[in-house]
Amino acid sequence: MTNKENNISQVFADEKNLRLLINNTDDPIWLVDTSCTIIECNESFKKWVRHFIGRDLGKGDHVLNNGLDKLYLDKFEMCYQVALNGKALKSVEDMQVDNQLRYTSVSFNPVFDDAHKVIGVSCFARDITEQRRHLYKIEEQNLALREIAFIESHKIRGPVATILGLAQFFNNDDITDDVNREIMDGIVTASKQLDLVIREVVKKSNEIGPLP
Description:
By secondary structure, this protein is of the alpha+beta class. The protein folds into two domains: 3-127, PAS domain (Beta-Lactamase), CATH 3.30.450; 134-208, Helix Hairpins, CATH 1.10.287. The protein has six helices and five strands, in the order αββααβββααα. It has helices spanning 3-23, 43-53, 70-84, 129-155, 157-168, 178-208, and strands at residues 29-33, 38-41, 89-97, 100-112, 118-127. A five-stranded antiparallel β-sheet has the order 2-1-5-4-3, with helices on both faces. It is rod-shaped.
């Protein structure tokens, strides 16, 4: 086999290995040229697009002629243009999938030739719904914890201060002192207020649930 035949064989082998690599993932991957025409894409990209527009989109198709509404088209076109100007960026999209809200992170990365001229955009999408839900859960828990901290630092302080203050005036030398009765009534009232606050803290703690 000649060197030329070896080179051709290597090119086909490299292309086959590349296809195996990009198709061995559930994440959509695609590459467009400077006119936003698809140069290459994997099967996950085709499946992803087919789900949203109801038809196939692949090599040779314009990536923006995909039937999405104008809001999405305008946003994606802006992302492609930013990447074609040499700047990588990420966009998070929220879309309805099977009547459920799903979040997808889409990366747009400029592709440069040897002269450092932009010749296209490589794109990568990943479903980040679970990460988003996890983040939202943490934010909800943090909010609940801040509410509990506020209750503990403000609402509890009042009844506790009342109890400690009244206790100082208790006549230990003469427990039959009429003032003691008033003091005990005040302590009981403050204790009941404190009990209500503690119940509120417990309730909010139970609403937090387990950490994600």
